[in-house]
Amino acid sequence: MTTTVHPSAQLGAGTTVGEGCVVGAGVQTGSRCRIGHHVVIHADTLIGSDVRIDDHATLGKLPMRAANSATTREQELPPLTLGDQCIVGTGVVLYRGAAIDAKVLMADQCTIRENVTIGRGTIVGRGVTVENVCTVGRYCKLESECYLTAYSTLEDRVFVAPGVVTSNDNYVGRTAERFKHFKGVTVRKGGRIGAGSVILPGIEIGEDGLVAAGSVVTHDVPARTIVLGAPARPWREVPVEQRLEHQGWSDS
């Protein structure tokens, strides 16, 4: 149950560390951080002020690469960075090479891979996986157990409901040709994806577009349009009162 803090680590004023933790070389935290029990913070990780890290979280993990991995490559990665006032839930795994802005909530058991950026105020729900080489904007909501495939981009204020699955390989793991065509999904500002939907590789969901629950999206979704079905087809325009510009939200 002994906590080990490397001599070169710098913990900010008022920071507390629980039992059984390992804090690696060169780790830096801001002031007033709360680190729970059995947390592992790998070398060089940079953590802002007023950050809460719950039990059994792992920060700064190095990627693993299988011999036949299609998207993971050997590379030098910058340290994991975590902005002020973030919350890291129990069992969360954050990889080295991720950059997470301020006020991001990462719920229990979620995973954020390398070469990922997460914008300010975003919520990453319980059990969510954000694969490598993804960009997630500000004030997004990725709800429980959704899966964001590698090489995807979500702009600001995107909503992804529970159980959504995205994909990036139209060749479904066969033929060498597939390596030339990996492409994740793109969701423009204010786009929304309903529960249990499946989004195929390379699809773009336009600004304020809405995918109805349970849909299979095989073609791009026009801006401010609701699509539904399997395969998804345009149904009608997003009601004016639901559009992003009418929500009165602040980006502060």
UniProtKB/TrEMBL annotation:
Keywords, comma-separated and alphabetical: Transferase
Source organism superkingdom: Bacteria
GO molecular function terms listed in the Swiss-Prot or TrEMBL record: transferase activity
Family matches, as InterPro entries: Hexapep (IPR001451), Trans_hexapeptide_repeat (IPR050179), Trimer_LpxA-like_sf (IPR011004)
Keyword Transferase applies: yes
UniProt keyword Transferase, yes or no: yes
Protein name: N-acetyltransferase
Organism: Eiseniibacteriota bacterium
